[in-house]
Design a protein that fits this description.
The chain is of the alpha+beta class. The protein has one domain. Helix content is 23%, strand content 21%. It is built from three helices and five strands. It starts with a helix and ends with a strand.
């Protein structure tokens, strides 16, 4: 993973996770995850860190990211070069503040969701229209 991908993918992931704090968010996550059909090139759903937020017009935006051990080492090395500790850099003696594979996290603001261009199905974007209970978009982030 190159530095640009790290910056685009993780620097602004989220500042406030709400897992377990809001039952309706958990219900929405369960609904999406039980019905989503991933692209054929994608890894199994449980291999992704899954981030969700409510976007404009009641659309739930999901971003599924797949950070392997090498990616996490590179992110940690990059964090060590910084004076501040933006997300997902460790605070104190803690580890990276990324979700684990198979974990789902609700983010307070959709603007804090991860994003990248390229990378194939290392990242998947999902858009779910809550009013009509249908998927508007489920796609990989672009060529690898």
């Amino acid at each position: 993973m190159n530095l640009n991908r790290f910056v685009l993918t993780t620097v602004c992931l989220f500042t406030t996770a709400c897992v377990g704090e809001n039952g309706s968010n958990q219900t929405m996550i369960s609904t999406i995850e039980s019905t989503v059909a991933l692209p054929t090139e994608a890894a199994p759903l449980t291999s992704y860190e899954r981030y969700y937020a409510l976007g404009p017009d009641g659309i739930v935006i999901g971003v599924y990211a797949n950070h392997d051990a090498k990616d996490r080492r590179e992110i940690l090395q990059f964090c060590e070069t910084l004076d501040e500790r933006p997300f997902p850099c460790p605070i104190g003696q803690g580890g990276l503040r990324l979700a684990k594979a198979g974990e789902s996290v609700w983010i307070s603001d959709f603007k804090d969701l991860p994003g990248m261009s390229g990378g194939g199905c290392g990242q998947i974007t999902v858009e779910y229209e809550t009013a009509n209970k249908r998927f508007l978009r489920v796609e990989c982030s672009g060529p690898h």
